[in-house]
Amino acid sequence: MNKYIPVIGMEIHVELKTKSKMFCSSKNGLGLEKEPNVNICPVCTGQPGTLPVPNQKAIEFVQMAGLALNCEICKESKFDRKNYFYPDLPKGYQISQYDQPFCEKGYLTVNSEQGTVNKQIGITRIHLEEDTGKLVHPKNADYTLVDFNRAGVPLMELVTEPDIESGTEARLFCQKIQQIFRYLEISDANMEKGNMRCEVNISLYKKGEDRLSGTKVEIKNINSFKFVEKSIDYEIKRQAEILESGGKIIQETRGWSESKGETVTQRTKESAHDYRYFPEPDIPPFKFTDEYIENLRRKLPELPEAKKERLVKEYDLSKENAEVIVGDNDLAEYFEDVVSEIRADKDSGETASDDKKCVKLAANYIVSELQKYLVKNFETIKDIKITAENYAELMGILADGKINSSAGQIVLSEMYKTGGDPSQIIESKNLGQMSDTLELEKVIDKIISKNQQSIDDYKSGKHNALQFLMGQVMSATKGKANPVVLIELLRKKLG
């Protein structure tokens, strides 16, 4: 394995979340409709005499993706016909782009999992085309059905330079791409639902040889990040073993079989000339001005990397917490709504705690506790019943020491189930901390009177005795004693 270096490029297909399809007014249901052939018309089913009309929003979405990925937006562009026959391709050709895409020459920087290495992955092009229909194979039937709901859905294709060198690197790249597209709100980019599909081009070359000397193999239609990584790792090993045994790599298309844990042959690979590309005669070429491009740039939202840096700087969050929060745009918005409520509570005097401390506490609880419930219940932050206002109130109560962390977890659990007010939950479950010094002194006096040996140990320098006495008081108050007040009173009593 040490003799060979992998050369890996990615092709990522993403269905765009427009209201209508790419070249007609049929509804864009992303091919997820329950009934077949309901969102179709003469244009997207390829009827004779129909003409395509490009979807302006889809073109804008592709160009915004290009701007977010540091691409050049081409001032001149056009659509092309890509000719091939397949039963779910209604016209017998696909309207796509060949030599003049909407975006080219971009890049995305990927951090290693440890966050120690930055790797810049080049993006060759981002172009736009229409998706195909879908073949349905009924069980135990000798025929195939065609569903054209997906035919004509706007499909963006991103092609990278062959800069990727491992399965892990490819997975991290795809995850970051998905995150950016979701921030742009141009696609759900859900791999399980087929909104985002990944393909890998991989070859090996010997150290000391030309890096493009290997024979390229394509792994088609990978539908999870885990399988992207696994398929690449397997293919590197497979190709290396063939080369070591004196064999030759065949240029072909392969698929990933999860049941076998290996890539499998599908067909020999077509070349670009097999598609007989030529300019689409029914759609005029496009010209874009600098003003148009700048207007699009102004529409860009704050992107994940910039947001992560701001959260660390503005709220003093750890990089790890900021990474988790920024990982989901909806979660990041929820967190910032909570911060606004915390600051409003501080300004109104409803909480005495330092708002920075409260904000960091809010982030910790989102990452450790709230995420735990979301994962367990297969929910997103949009599904929860806890309002930002109630979440902020709970953080203020915790920061002010009115309840301890154990009680805080109980309250959060109840809030997750019911969406209830934290103060009412604390009162109904009697979870408030005992902070009254007179009440605590009575309990402390009783504990001290029963534990003379621990007092003598403490005075002789054995400070573990203080922890023992604290534990006794906590036990007597059923964990409700305020630990900050308690330790101060104990030290005062013991001298």
Task: Give a structural overview.
The protein is of the alpha+beta class. It has three domains: 4-297, no CATH class; 302-428, no CATH class; 437-494, Arc Repressor Mutant, subunit A (Orthogonal Bundle), CATH 1.10.10. It has 15 helices and 16 strands. The chain has a nine-stranded mixed sheet with strand order 2-6-7-10-1-11-12-13-14. A three-stranded antiparallel sheet has the order 5-4-15, with no helix packed on it. The protein has a two-stranded antiparallel sheet with strand order 3-16. Strand 8 (134-136) and strand 9 (145-147) form a beta hairpin. Helix 1 (56-68) crosses helix 4, helix 5 (304-315) crosses helix 6 (319-326) and helix 6 packs across helix 8. The termini are far apart. The model has no long low-confidence stretch (mean pLDDT 90).
Tally the structural domains.
3
Largest sheet: 9 strands, mixed
What's the number of extended β-strand segments? 16
Briefly note the structural class of the backbone: alpha+beta
Strand order, main sheet: write it out. Answer: 2-6-7-10-1-11-12-13-14
Q: Which percent range fits the helix content?
A: 40-55%
What fraction of the residues are assigned to beta strands by DSSP? 15-25%
Number of helix segments? Answer: 15
N-to-C CA distance = 69 Å
Radius of gyration: 30 Å
Average residue-wise pLDDT: 90
Low-confidence stretches: none
The shape, in one word, is: elongated
